[in-house]
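Need the bound structure for zinc ion, inputs here:
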Amino acid sequence: MRKIFVLSAVLTVLAFNVNGQQQQSLDAMIERDLASWLSTYKTLHAAPELSHREEKTAAFVAAELRKLGFTVTEHIGKYQNAQWNGYGVVAVMKNGPGPTVLVRTELDALPVDEKTGLPYASQVKMKNDAGVEVSVMHACGHDMHMTSFLGTARMLTELKSRWSGTLMMLAQPAEETGDGAAAMLRDNLYANFPKPDFAIALHDTPGLETGKVGYTPGYAMASATSIDIKIRGVGGHGSAPETTKDPVVVAAQFVMALQTIVSRENSPLDPVVVTVGSIHGGTRYNIIPDEVNLQLTVRTYKEDVKRRVLASIERIVRGVAASAGIPEDRGPIVKVAEGTGATYNEPQLVERLVVAFKQALGEENVVKVPPIMASEDFGNFGLDQKIPTTIFWLGASDPAKVKTSRETGVALPGLHSALFAPVPEPTLRTGVKAMTSAVLELMKK
Ligand SMILES: [Zn+2]
Ligand SMILES: [Zn+2]
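Answer from helper R.:
Posting the output first, comments after.
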């Protein structure tokens, strides 16, 4: 027994030393390449492209992966709107038997006029889907994700002796519009390329100090569904309501009636948000209009809850219109758009990654964070939780600023803000270190 104990103690020490040495070599490789990643980051930041239009960004990412020896395929993605090109990129590296691990980055930026004043701030303007020229900015940090992704690809090609399996680096377009992952899947992603055993991604966040990563086991982000509703009435003169069926009043009643979906129809243990983000009707003071148009967003974690909420919305709008005496042939028109699924971080996968993160970054730099009702289309790659997936948060803010923000209660510029400015160097270092360690954990020999 004693001998076994001593032997196992020796093995533990040896394993610890090997891990320690491996960590040192990864740290040294990262420091060696950091300056070049910084320059890649600034180049990408200064050249953002809108969703559905990521042509140059995708070509750049594809070329970099090709240089590293990956088998690269471009132009992946089929949208429902046939006028848009799919700019998805998949880069595969086979390295012996073992699991297939998908690492994902996004390519797109936002219609935001950058106000950071940084020397590498974006000056870019381009036409959006409607043909209107807008300013463009990487206000969600997808430039940080791409650079960490390319750095990770580089580290893993150099560390091939330490992993076995198939590495699948995937750059997706149109995350901000929520249709990029679906477009890649519709283009037979998992038939033309290996179907992954695990899919992982990161997202930067101003709420966490640079140098840290955050994790959320289970549901981390909500599904998002957009709904257009046209409430039709019978218009007329504003002085003669008795000759009309006023859709403005019906719309007002509908908005209030919606509030009971969350408060009276839903379990308090299932988070739901129903927001009316837009309501438009009428042209002037004394005309009762023919219709009012509303745009809603619904957020839920669970699919069955989403289905029930969507059915409730439809039932309520029809009921309110009927009770106002609107004839059936003038009933409301409800259109539910293609949405984004919830992001579920498979708890066992999270647990494995947390161990790897703690070893790479130190226990104090790996923190559990609560889920949010924002959404992401990364979960689509998990095919409704059939493939274990995890997205983790990458801290991007100066620790002193986070401290002040927590003390004063004044939030730092958030994602999608014109002032969002991650601290590049330490965030890249942590992004590459965390993602590389995550893949090595899943594919270790
Ligand atoms: Zn975003
Ligand atoms: Zn984003």
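Comments: The chain is about 40% helix and 25% strand. Residues 69 and 93 are 8 Å apart (CA to CA).
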